[in-house]
Amino acid sequence: MKRFVVAALAMAALSSTQVARACEECQLNKSGMYFGQFTILGNGTVRTWTKLNKGVPQSLGLTFSESALDGQPQKMPAKLQDQLKLMHRLQLPKEAARTGFTEISLDYMPEGHEPKPLYTVPHFDIHFYRMPWSERRKISAEGADLKTCEKKPEAGILPAGYIVAPRAAMPQMGAHAINPKSPEFNGKPFTHTLIYGLYDGKVNFIEPMVAISFLREKKNVSQPIALPTKFTQWGFYPTRYSISFDENRREYTFALEGLVPRGPAVKKAAVKQVSTNKACTMGKGCCAMKSKTAAKAVKS
């Protein structure tokens, strides 16, 4: 009998925790926050999210635990299959589809990458893709496809001042465009920056990059994003990116914020207001269910 009571209490505690988490997320859904699935990252976890205001996208990003910075390799693995394990394809919540972004790839670079010595420090590349994986996976950046990657974009496709970096086309990504006025190109150490991605002369990703050393300082920053003047794809585009650390939750957050609709053939259906109440699957009495679930488990 005693064993049964202990088991029942344990079940009650577990059920209580699960319901409490569901309640928290339920309330966040009501406020317009929607989340992707948790994914293992280092010794911690990461997940994506998006925020809507009456169905209209406001921001999107990812949040990971402080412990995710630990348990990462010190050197880039020699084998390609092991290198790919450091590139995490993260699915966005379905509510983010209206933004035009398809997924986020969080790539850990233990020794950085070219060009030397600017980016050869441990850092994260955070690719916010506007190109579906079914198309992106075909990018080889070799032969004829290399020419497609390096196709010169029309005027206005990139923000003023951005240039396509030479020999910077990568498989499953495309070409990279940088801003020569960024601090790291003007005698200052790389801390964080923003890069645009291109394929076939069109923007296919926006990429904040941040050094691990900067993250460990736990500074909060918010930087304006220069937008192009010509858009080939309709959707919501960010006007700022931010990097922040929550002292209470011990979590880092990367966000693209201040989303604005841009591009040809704007469709009202894409910004149709949706009832956030539908996102709350627990119902109006979700928080009241917490005590009822615990009581039922003990009584059983």
Query: Radius of gyration over alpha carbons?
Result: 22 Å
User: What class, by secondary structure content?
Assistant: alpha+beta
Order of helices and strands: HEEEEHEEEHHEEEEHEEEEEH
Number of helices: 6
Mean pLDDT over the residues: 84
Tally of discrete structural domains: 2
Tell me, what's the shape? Answer: globular
Strand elements, count: 16
Multimerization state: single chain
The percent range for strand residues is 25-35%
**Quick one: biggest sheet?**
7 strands, antiparallel
Helix content: 10-25%
End-to-end separation: 12 Å
Low-confidence stretches: 2-20, 272-300
Structure in a nutshell:
The N terminus and C terminus are likely disordered. The strands form three sheets. Strands 1, 2, 3, 4, 12, 14 and 15 form a seven-stranded antiparallel sheet that branches.
